[in-house]
Write a structure and sequence with these properties.
By secondary structure, the protein is of the alpha/beta class. The chain has a single domain, classed as Rossmann fold (3-Layer(aba) Sandwich), CATH 3.40.50. Helix content is about 35%, strand content about 10%. It contains 8 helices and 7 strands. The longest helix has 22 residues. The chain is globular and about 50 Å long. The relative contact order is 0.18.
């Protein structure tokens, strides 16, 4: 039986009085996000492979970690140290799927840490087949006067610069058939005026994906990106006011926020043999919001 996509997840209004302190945590969200814990069924598409996922403790990264494990991959996840509780839960789900999970706390704005993440992943699993650049910093603004140099630099270091450092470290370990999957956003195209910094970083990621795809295609390494729309993740309540949270996703044609688990199949497609002729692509998962 098919499912009405308008009813595949909770619909607004959502409780508006959510956590307001950084970083957001899954355990403090109401309703709890669905990462596919009870619904995702693997097909062995990533059997024997190893993946490194930044921001793998919660939200989209957590859903991808669970899906990759159920597809047969060992998973390393990076996250901020204060997100340890969420990371431990992700690890439990990966291990429940019968795969190994390496926890790698730290701030990817540090280039040395980026290199260390790759080195530790390869040392533990003996290989690296998939790099998922998913972690992101997000700030909001009301006007130009709200933009702070520290926020601009910090956001680009986390969202864009880290992708360069991680790719530089990862690619020498990758063989033909390997894949890099980046997380951009619908904001790369719609560019909400209250998200000037975040939208600019996500636009940069979309362009970086195309350029990196062209660079690495001769080595048999595919590079693609996924563009989420409004997704029910811990990043939402810490950057939006209660009124915005209550109506998150209401503006989409499907009328609701997406759940992290609804993103995982796109990341599996782009990492697996099912997407073997896809490189340089941007895959929107936006609840129907147009990007072109």
């Amino acid at each position: 039986m098919t499912q009405d996509p308008r009813e595949a997840g909770p619909r607004p209004p959502y409780p508006g009085d959510q956590q307001q302190t950084r970083p957001g945590l899954t355990t403090k969200m109401t309703p709890r996000p669905d990462h596919g814990e009870t619904s995702y069924v693997g097909k062995g598409l990533l059997a024997g492979q190893a993946a490194l996922i930044t921001g793998g403790d919660s939200g989209i990264g957590k859903a991808v970690a669970i899906a990759y494990a159920r597809e047969g991959a060992d998973v390393a996840i990076s996250y901020l140290e204060v997100e340890q509780e969420d990371a431990e839960d992700t690890k439990a789900w990966v291990e429940k799927a019968g795969r190994r999970c390496l926890l790698l706390p730290g701030d990817i704005r540090d280039p040395d840490l980026c290199r260390d993440l790759v080195a530790r992943t390869v040392a533990t699993f003996g290989r690296l087949d998939i790099l998922v650049n998913n972690a992101a910093a997000q700030v909001v603004n009301e006007g130009l006067d709200d933009l702070k140099s520290a926020d601009i630099e910090g956001s680009f270091r986390a969202n864009v610069f880290a992708m360069y450092h991680l790719a530089q470290a990862a690619v020498p370990h990758m063989k033909p058939g390997a894949a890099i999957v980046n997380s951009t956003s619908v904001q790369a195209k719609v560019a909400d005026p209250t998200m000037l910094i975040y939208a600019a970083t996500k636009g940069a990621i979309a362009s970086l994906t195309i350029g990196l795809s062209n660079l690495l295609a001769p080595q048999g390494i595919r590079v693609n990106c996924v563009a989420p729309g409004p997704i029910w993740t811990p990043i939402q309540p810490i950057v939006k006011n209660p009124e915005q949270i209550a109506q998150l996703g209401a503006q989409t044609p499907l009328g609701r926020a997406g759940q992290p688990g609804e993103l995982a199949p796109a990341y599996v497609l782009l990492a697996s043999r099912e997407g073997s002729y896809m490189s340089g692509a941007l895959v929107p998962v936006t609840g129907g919001m147009p990007m072109y």
